[in-house]
Design brief:
The chain is an alpha/beta fold and 296 residues long. It has helices at residues 4-13, 22-25, 32-38, 45-51, 71-85, 116-126, 130-138, 246-249, 251-265, 277-293, and strands at residues 27-28, 55-56, 108-111, 142-146, 156-159, 162-165, 173-189, 192-207, 216-219, 232-234, 237-240. The protein starts with a helix and ends with a helix.
Length: 296
């Protein structure tokens, strides 16, 4: 497989597509000139700011890197400044393998998904931060571990017969097997009434989770059973095998995480959360389609 996730998805669902406009929902920030040329000049920066819902920063160059240059880096900084005007300072620090980092001042810790091979590589490097991560968690720092990154929190795990310890933030175990679970997820959490939607691509069975993030699924494979509980949650630590932009797909989960950050800062929560029309529309479409597949 050249592009594992995409190739599997195309094989499974290639005939069941719900087409969306790329320039609105998956705008490749590297291809501004191509979009503008194809639209005969219509899709300039003003058009992007007025219409595009999701900017996809593909490739190694990210707008939050200090060396970033270009129109979309400036747009990213624009939104960063808007947050600062609301009284919230924003600084993103990317930690590369082998790089030291002072985690004690973090408001939010995030680790995203990767392949199982990359997870094993990340585990070896992430272990040195184990004590700092557990101290942050005990202090109430908000954290999100998405996709296979969730498995790094484990007490222990097995990969192709090799036992690999985690950082021990949670007591669960993760055993990677030959069966892969590549499927959509429609589930429920006790954090808010709205369903949680997403997609997973994993091969691990996770046992020993006493406090799951999703208490039940109507669609998808849970930690260790079809339609069983999924993920892990303890205080302000949130973990799930759901991949992709889990916060963007689930606006209420985003609000929950931001609330945790604000409470720890001692900052007031907004009386009314600002709503992004594109995000709400995207969630509504996904929720409706998955709910129909559940027969509800």
């Amino acid at each position: 497989l050249i592009l594992p996730d995409q190739d599997i998805l195309n094989g499974l669902y290639g005939s069941e597509l719900y087409p969306v406009e790329e320039s609105l929902w998956n705008y490749d920030a590297r291809r501004f000139d191509r979009y503008q040329l194809a639209s005969q000049g219509e899709m300039d920066m003003d058009w992007v700011m007025d219409h595009t819902a999701v900017l996809h920063f593909c490739g190694k160059r990210k707008p939050w890197h200090k060396t970033a240059r270009g129109r979309f880096s400036a747009l990213y900084k624009h939104y960063q400044r808007l947050l600062e005007r609301l009284g919230h300072t924003v600084a993103v620090e990317t930690v590369a393998p082998g790089q030291d980092a002072a985690l004690s001042g973090a408001d939010f810790l995030f680790m995203g998904a990767g392949t199982e091979r990359r997870q094993a590589f990340a585990q070896a490097d992430f272990a040195r931060f184990g004590a700092d991560v557990k101290a942050l968690a005990a202090d109430g720092c908000a954290m999100l571990f998405a996709g296979t990154a969730m498995e790094l929190l484990r007490a222990s795990g097995t990969d192709a017969g090799t036992v690999r310890p985690g950082i021990g933030l949670a007591e669960f175990t993760a055993v990677q097997g030959k069966q892969r679970f590549v499927e959509d997820v429609y589930g429920h959490t006790d954090l808010f009434p709205e369903p949680v939607v997403g997609f997973m691509n994993k091969c691990a069975n996770i046992s020993g989770v006493e406090t799951p993030l999703l208490t039940a699924l109507d669609l998808g494979y849970g930690n260790e059973a079809e339609k069983g509980p999924e993920g892990f949650r303890r205080d302000n630590v949130f973990a799930s095998e759901l991949t992709g932009p889990i916060l963007l797909k689930n606006p209420r989960l985003l609000e929950t995480v931001v609330s945790a950050i604000l409470r720890r800062r001692g900052a007031p929560e907004p009386e009314t959360w600002p709503l992004d029309a594109w995000t709400e529309q995207g969630y509504a479409i996904t929720e409706e389609q998955l709910r129909l597949r559940c027969g509800k």
